[in-house]
Amino acid sequence: MGVEGGPVLPPDLLSAPVLEEAVTTALGREPRLLVIDLTGVTFIASVGMTILLKAHRDGGRNLRLRVVAPERSSVARALELVGLTEILGVASTRADALAR
Questions:
Q1: Distance (Å, rounded) from C-alpha 81 to C-alpha 33?
Q2: Distance CA 93, CA 100 (A)
Q3: How confident is the model at residue 15, as a pLDDT?
Q4: Are 80 and 88 in contact (CB under 8 A)?
Q5: Contact 87, 71 (CB under 8 A)
Q6: Each residue's pLDDT expressed in tens, for the chain with a length of 100 residues
Q7: Edge-to-edge strands of the sheet including 33-37?
Q8: Residue in 21, 65, 68, 13 with CA at minimum distance from that of residue 41
Q9: How far apart (Å, rounded) are the C-alpha atoms in residues 12 and 95?
Q10: For the chain, which domains are there?
């Protein structure tokens, strides 16, 4: 998991505060584009999905949120199963996320 080069941690109950703090800090800069890279993450709990949705909500209309989750990964599949692929702007690579 990375938000502007953050650590690689699965977004679960133990690491959720780290992800939430990184997202809050990034949103505080009022970016036009925020890419949250979940490449290398093998599991995402509901608390992680909640943080991603909160980022989408808190970013407002001017924010383009992109979440990187490689195709066929368990994270991409989980986000797809709960219907978050479109809402969170899920892309399979960082390059795809930046190009959208």
A1: 25
A2: 11
A3: 79
A4: no
A5: no
A6: 445 444 444 556 667 888 899 899 999 999 999 999 999 888 888 999 999 999 999 999 999 999 999 999 999 999 999 999 999 999 999 999 999 8
A7: 2-3, 33-37, 64-68, 90-91
A8: 68
A9: 26
A10: 2-99 (3.30.750.24)
At residue 52, the 3 state secondary structure works out as: helix
Q: Name the residue among 28, 93, 45 with its Cα closest to residue 67.
A: 93
pTM: 0.85
Residue by residue, DSSP assigns 4-42 as SS------STTTHHHHHHHHHHHHHT--SEEEEE-TT--
The C-alpha atoms of residue 75 and residue 40 are separated, in whole angstroms, by 9
Pairing status of strand 90-91 against strand 33-37: unpaired
- Residue owning tokens 């997202």: 23
How far is Cα 100 from Cα 96, in angstroms, rounded to an integer?
A: 6
